[in-house]
Automatic annotation (TrEMBL):
Matches recorded under SUPFAM superfamilies: GAF domain-like (SSF55781), Winged helix' DNA-binding domain (SSF46785)
Keyword annotations: DNA-binding, Transcription, Transcription regulation
Positions of the IclR-ED domain: 74-250
Source species taxonomy: Bacteria, Pseudomonadati, Pseudomonadota, Alphaproteobacteria, Caulobacterales
Gene3D superfamilies per the UniProt record, alphabetical: 3.30.450.40, Winged helix-like DNA-binding domain superfamily/Winged helix DNA-binding domain
Xref: Pfam families: HTH_IclR, IclR_C
Domain of life (superkingdom): Bacteria
Protein name: IclR family transcriptional regulator
Amino acid sequence: MVETTDRRQGIQSVGIGLRVLDVLASLDGAAALGAIAQASDLSASQAHRYLASLIAAGMARQDAATGRYELGPGALRLGLAALSRMDVFREAAIAIGDYVRETGRTVQMAALGPSGPIVVRWIMGTPPISTSLTVGAPLPLLSSATGHVFLAFRPENQTRAMVERETQPQFQPIDVEALRSRVRRDGYSAVRGDLIPGLRATAVPIFDLQGEAVFTATVLATDLFKPENDAQARDRLIEVCDQITAATGGIRPQV
């Protein structure tokens, strides 16, 4: 009887811990203990105990300066593992790998997380490109080619909070609607040195069956690659991403 009760309590504790983890994933960035407790329907002391366990397991972390909590490296590994099991991700990884071998260009793949775009795969070309970006790195929505594609090809309610965060007075003013319209019309976004000086980036969407950008493939180049060849590399990447979309049952939306 005691064993059954202990097992039931253990299952309940796991369920609550997963609920707290889900709250961390759904909130817009690092959050205070009170906000997490309220969203998890727990008292502050209860939420603190579960957060401590999640931190010990690497699933959460606490910022020493602010005391706020956010997802830890363990949660990121789980998310990336889940992505790697998606048919579209597997198809894309194979096709983009072939593209990199064909063109020599470096490509990063990204998905849209709760707080913004995040790099989920990095396929290095020849010669290799060295940047501060790695798998798991976040990207801005409004100042990266990758972010532009998600802005244009995901529902507005999914990006509204990100847009609001990046259009605060301290940021350079930007016409969000004009940017969204341009990228939807062109079907891609290209920037030069907007995020990292000297780096040219062109992002192309991969669509799901609802016509939403489920992943982006962003081809990168430095001065080692002639700018006059960028259009050819872009057009080939669009062709590859359209093939991935078709092969996985996705639909390119009509604009």
